[in-house]
Amino acid sequence: AEMRVAVVGAGVSGLTATKCCLDEGLEPTCFEQSQDIGGLWRYTEDIQASRPSLYPSVISNTSKEMSAFSDFPYPEDFPVFLPHGRLLHYLRRYAERFGLREHIRLGTTVVSIRKHPDFASTGRWNVVTEAEGKQTSHVFDAVMVCSGNFSEPSLPLHCFPGIERFRGQYFHSQQYKHPDVFQGKRVLVVGMGNSGVDIAVEASRVAAKVMISTTRGALLLGRVFEHGYPWDMVYNTRLMSLIRNNLPGPLSRGWINYMVNQRFNHENYGLQPEKSCLVREPVLNDDLPSYILTGRITIKPGLKEFKDNSVVFHNCPEEEPIDIVVFCTGYDVSFPFLEESVVKVENKHASLYKYVFPTHLQKPTLAVLGLIKPLGGIMPVIEMQARWVTRVFKGRGANVSPPVYQNAAQILKTEWLAYMDTLASFIGAKPSVLGLLCRDPWLALTIFFGPCSPYQYRLGGPGRWEGARQAILTQWDRVLKPTRTRVPAGSSSSFPSLLTILGFLLLLAAVIFGF
Known about the structure:
- This is Flavin-containing monooxygenase 1.
- Keywords: Endoplasmic reticulum, FAD, Flavoprotein, Membrane, Monooxygenase, NADP, Oxidoreductase, Transmembrane, Transmembrane helix.
- One of its GO terms (molecular function) is N,N-dimethylaniline monooxygenase activity.
- By secondary structure, the chain is an alpha/beta fold.
- It folds into 3 domains: 4-151 and 332-427, FAD/NAD(P)-binding domain, CATH 3.50.50; 155-222 and 263-329, FAD/NAD(P)-binding domain, CATH 3.50.50.60; 433-483 and 491-513, no CATH class.
- It is 30% helix and 18% strand.
- It is built from 16 helices and 24 strands.
- Strands 3-2-1-7-24 form a 5-stranded parallel sheet, with helices on one face. Strands 9-18-10-11-14 form a 5-stranded parallel sheet. The chain has a 3-stranded antiparallel sheet with strand order 4-5-6, with no helix packed on it.
- The longest helix has 20 residues, at 495-514.
- The N and C termini lie far apart (66 Å).
- The relative contact order is 0.14.
């Protein structure tokens, strides 16, 4: 009999988990409590408890080529960075292309997941679901938790003295939908993550005044990077990763800091983070520097206390009048359907081997997908996790027994490409640049010097895709197609840039060996 797998959620994680189960010959059943697929990327005006929520202006922070599923490129006419509607359209096409909908039960909530009495020998799970007020019990051989981590807002009001006497309005960023609420108001945004900066930028177009309060600062990247190319297609290459991971720690951090400050000096804009925070996930926004320059947004230090109609910041004695406060303080990791002993959550992070498997279970038959914050596209990472997990379920993956605890600092330091390569090596899908150099030198050079797009992990091994080579060699064509709209778009060969890099390396080698 086929191994039965319960998949919790039909967002990005749930869809790719279902697809990977089918690829491995497993029998998935995907439970989604809403009436449609898409998870976080499905926009609604309603704000529901324990459900992800986004605002209409949300745009992806990673480019389409670096955030595609590895055997399903985005259409070439899609913009390079995707509005949420386009991304949802892509997910629906993905579900249709691979026949996923027949395995998804919409309007079905997972109430509880408990170990079956024979778990020690079989690894099975009892799963209770609810649909239309009726509960049903199931037994599954394995479980993939794909419920995401943007459902439980973290709002630690006890950390903000005086908030109980503040007479203005305040809310968590999860409740934000439109900037109209800020019309003519004095607005304070607490926290400097991606949502915080996006909301501050939108608010500044209609508000009387906007301030961002940040204790630690942040490194700021723009979607538009060197020479106008997408940031992640320049940053996440095998050459760049090799340099970053082989330089001594201080040199590597200093180099990254230097690169980021080429666009503008963070210290001059009040954004330079503390040294200990250089490993934090950078913020992606193209507008903030110009909005600071034009006075639309002011950067402030951490909050000291609230007054009746104002706030006081650390190291700033004067009070600042405020009408509305938006707390962009992140989300808590929560699995209400699991027993606490199954997945231990501490300081907003779960104890998981390779950020996927609970470290103490007798059988590796439960996996959590998507609880990682790499500096790169999350969708390919989740897909790689799912490919590894389904092979582990089948008894063909790498050993998952080492009890490794990954804490918050380790998670934020995770290198996107290194993590992808690690999981790919577990299933035999990591591309061999040296091997390709003999058989297909042009492809090998493109893989090493060019963007590490997800298609690289379909060149060989299980799940090999015949279209992977062509997808890699035409990735720049799909990037430039939606932007070269005034003149015909020609081929975007990377040959000149490769020659430049090769020449630089040869010169560097000559200098080193010359000395």
